[in-house]
Design a protein that fits this description.
Strand order of the largest sheet: 3-4-5-9-8-7-6
CATH class of the largest domain: Alpha Beta
CATH superfamily of the largest domain: Bira Bifunctional Protein, Domain 2
Shape: elongated
Largest sheet: 7 strands, mixed
Length: 329
Amino acid sequence: MNTREKLLELLESNRGVYFSGEEIAGRLNVSRTAVWKAVKSLQSAGYAIDAVTNKGYCLSRDTDILSAQGIRKYLRVSRQQVSDPDIFVLDTAVSTNAVVREGADGGMPEGYTVLSNEQSAGRGRLGRSFFSPRGTGIYMSILLRPGNCSPGQAVRITTMAAVAVCEAIEAVSGEQAQIKWVNDIYVRDKKVCGILTEGSFGLESGLLEYAVLGVGINVYQPEGGFPEELLDIAGAVLTDRREDVKNRLAAEFLNHFYGYYGGQGHGIADYVEEYRRRSLVTGKRIAVLSGNETRGAVALGIDDECGLLVRYDDGGEACLSSGEISIRL
């Protein structure tokens, strides 16, 4: 780590505590000039660092900026779940999924995680874009390398992530989070999170070589509001600013996701039941979208593979393992 990163780690771990320039220099084994430059660099990046004569430097408790150091202090991920995850926070990215996919092709290990304060071309399902404005959301992608994973089993990555997002939102905000099959998360009847899992499969084995799990969470309402085409759909987890929420929410997602993915204290049945319990669509009328065809149906429930059980208006029943549905809330 460079001086700026070391300083941020120290201040993040001691929010509200003042350290003199001399004390920081001693702890980091650098000059006081290097400390001053690092403080100025962090302040320029938006960190609320107070500098008080005879007291020193202090990171304000109200700061809510994503950082690897801020996320790590809330992590409870064990080495049995995944080796110490490499976490990187970018100021901006075209797409965090694209960054992680490039890393995967370059041999980065499982747990390689990239977050960005904004995306210029965030990606959603079915080739759609994902609105990713600066400073109000969490845009995160994780590299996973599960062993002997078939295409059918790979779907579990998305459904595990959906449950983990709900649990993280509830832990940090106290709001109830629900899942619109298969991977959209809703709070107060508005979509606050989308999940996109992309994979690379071996031509000979047919097994998953790696997966890139992308998660986009609207933490706050964007400045100026959502675009007109999203007004009736999109929402945010929180209606008011809170202390260090983005770092806490990102870490809680990783904690819960790896709890399921790594199998530490959680079985497949556990997360399936949680997915089922949070289903937004069970018992509701829905429209099943397939190509250019739309069929009316009732959602009957979620099966043990997180497939959606439906009864069409003509009386026929089916289990959907993939696809898209719409529901009027």
